[in-house]
């Protein structure tokens, strides 16, 4: 692997081989979603605990300090909304010149396998891989399912992840599911887990993250279960314990209880 690309990945994936990315890109299709109405205020106490920040260029420019301690993963696909006809009908929103200008560590592209726009979103991923490869910029493929949450099973997600890897993604973000090892074992590049909708309990979050790590994921890209929680800093510290300190779910809950204010 080229030195520059490996250097960027090393910024995001820590020496223990694990990572905790904090996504705040939800506004690109949800608008001012709950607890993310003012992104700068939301992430201010959280960002120092993140290994990477997944964000759009608009919020990066307007809300993120240029001295931000976390490396940036830039979302570069979009142009759909939650009230539109189909979330899968995305296109690339950001040029390679803009990506270089913003000096980001990686970019993220959504791919909707099995949707009406499967080909177009896979073309988005392929185009971005082709353009970023010349400059040593890693591409994270996001295996999106839109509103069809029932698609989150091992057979479907394994298919999605493998296709994204085959198209050249350096990292694949996907959902945790039962038999998650079937997803990671058939994907030749690192897999990170998405958080999905907010869970009902703190323990539920710790359990699926711990299970996914045991079954081959290298980390998480988890937002709403942190910044929509009434104790977001405590949640981040507890999740970091699972990811980087190999804490059990119950040990992570103990960290959460110690850190809550």
Could you explain how this protein is built, in words?
The strands form two sheets. This protein has an eight-stranded parallel beta barrel with strand order 1-2-3-6-7-8-9-10, surrounded by six helices. It has a two-stranded antiparallel ribbon with strand order 4-5. The mean pLDDT is 95. The protein is 41% helix and 15% strand. The protein has twelve helices and ten strands. The chain has one domain (3-259): TIM Barrel. It has helices at 3-12, 27-30, 39-43, 57-63, 96-101, 118-133, 154-166, 181-184, 202-214, 224-227, 232-244, 249-259; strands at 19-23, 52-55, 72-75, 77-78, 91-92, 106-111, 139-143, 171-175, 191-194, 219-221. It is an alpha/beta fold. The relative contact order is 0.13. It is globular.
Structure classification: alpha/beta
Unreliable stretches: none
Principal-axes geometry comes out as: globular
Task: Work out the number of β strands.
Answer: 10
Q: Mean of the pLDDT scores?
A: 95
The sequence of SSEs as H and E is HEHHEHEEEHEHEHEHEHEHHH
